[in-house]
Amino acid sequence: MSLVAIERINDYDVPLIKESLISMIGKTEFPEVNGKRILLKPNILSDAGKEKAITTHPAVLEAIISILQDKGAKEILVGDSPGLHTPGFNARNSGIKDVIDRMGAEFEDFTKNNREHTVYRSIKVPMALAIDNADVVISVAKFKTHQLMMMTGCVKNMFGLVPGLNKSPMHLKCPSVNEFAKLIISIFRESHTDYAIMDAVIGMEGAGPANGRPRKVGLLLSSSDAFALDYAEAVIMGYERKDMPIINEAISEGIFDPRKVEYPILNAKDLIIRDFERVKSQRRNLFSALILPFFTRFFKIRKDRARIAPEFQDNCIKCRRCIDICPAKALSMGEKHPIINEKACIRCYCCHEMCPIDAIKIF
Question: Is the pLDDT of residue 198 over 90?
């Protein structure tokens, strides 16, 4: 049985969030934290202002830290590493660093200390040493869509344990959606995450995880089973099961069973947002479902080529973040915006994720 607690909460009022979280963790299997070192892993995709709904809201983080302190936690570490981890990154713009300082927690720089792990397909990947040194690991994710994985959540959130630019080569090694989902799952399992919390007070719809629109959802979610929590997120967003790559791979691997999910407070099936703007699946028509697999198998056409290539718009500011992050080196700067080599592009959408002004479209 996987218990997922969901409560309504309308704004980022810290006392109300704390009260709700206390109720939620009391109805789920929250780990013992007394006298222990805790690692909190929020989503800090980029150190953007909290109003953009790109990061976990600092009020949620403050409430969690307060609860952990009340429960006797010895030490609380908070860390993440964006795809382009700039020198001096400390999550100040998002408001997260202010909360860390004020609450007496400690910011953990994932780029400074890491250890190599062997994950899916024997891929060697560095991960933050903080997970080895922590007694309890908690994923604190944001309710958001994701251009490649359809949605991001508490499982995908732990990909941030891989420091900086070490992330983008992972797309090159696992270019298909299913392969990348398996990689994410293996990295998550290496993280030994004990509990998951999701900030869904204000979520993101549309072109997530960085260029979508804030959307009032009015919920908090928590569970000791991150896959179950992410499944509940997908249900609320209105996705069908076939649209959930990470969930489907977890089911195939026998580590998650949606039939065992139970809701002790609110049921996700009663909270579906009918007009939520989801990322559209690019593999739904007859050609992609039946004919394309034949061609990719027998004529050696790369599976990633079946997905839509990003298109660059004239409002580009030539910041070069997309060029720097591209694992396939498929981009070069043109007169108005980057030029894409579609044959080299693996459709990982790292460029879209890093664009600060939404100048990249996935149509």
Answer: yes
